[in-house]
Amino acid sequence: MIQTQDFDSFLVLDFEATCDRPVQLQTQEIIEFPVIKLNGQTFEIESVFQTYVKPSVNPVLTPFCTQLTGIMQETVDNGVPFETALQMFIEWMRAQNLIAPDSYEPLSRFAFITFGNWDLQKMLVDQCNLIGTLPPEFMQSWINLKKSFAKMNNFWPNSLSDAMNALRLPITGRLHSGVDDCENIAAAAKKLAESGHVFKITNKIRVKNSNF
Ligand code: AMP
Ligand code: MG
Ligand code: MG
Description:
It comes from Dinothrombium tinctorium. Residues 9-198 form the Exonuclease domain. Pfam families: RNase_T (PF00929). One of its GO terms (molecular function) is nucleic acid binding. By secondary structure, the chain is α/β, with parallel strands linked by helices. It has a single domain, classed as Ribonuclease H-like superfamily/Ribonuclease H (Nucleotidyltransferase, domain 5). The protein is 34% helix and 17% strand. The protein has helices spanning 63-69, 73-77, 82-95, 118-130, 145-153, 160-166, 178-194, and strands spanning 9-13, 16-17, 30-39, 45-52, 110-114, 141-144, 203-204. Helix 5 packs parallel to helix 7. The longest helix is centred in the last third of the chain and has 17 residues, at 178-194.
């Protein structure tokens, strides 16, 4: 039995970004923007949004980045600028009847789920900064699945594979592929709900109104 939830849908989001090792890039940029929409009661996948994004500060991927994410240079070369990606995502939100046709007003109860706070607290804010804007209001609060997991399992998961193993779930696809990570995070969320967890917003950022 899946625990009744406070939301009509969950939006599982997992960005991939430009990166390097051993020294991280000064400016990381989003290269994959995937979101999986889950039914808020059954946790079934209702729709998938995905686009690759062409980075502008560091347009050439490091070999480390391609090795980590599986994302090829050609893929980002054919990607869209971030501004377009965000606009496409907003249109998808509208097509899903999640937000109003002419504003960002929510039309139902939805919540983003991410694994950690990096995606919406750091990466999206930095990336929006680069184009001189702020995240839309509806992306300024989220559920950190690490927190939900820790509440149910009494330990803080360091990695997604940590959490999947503890939940006895198989890892599908490729770790660090954004859309595959979303699928695994979605499976973990469903398992937590089956164990009786009721998801609550865990984190918010407070910024001025977005003009995007
Ligand atoms: P993830 O969702 O775990 O795949 O990570 C999101 C992003 O964080 C990746 O696209 C990288 O930009 C960065 N990242 C993750 N793991 C590492 C790592 N071990 N070293 C450097 N950057 C990383
Ligand atoms: Mg991630
Ligand atoms: Mg990922």
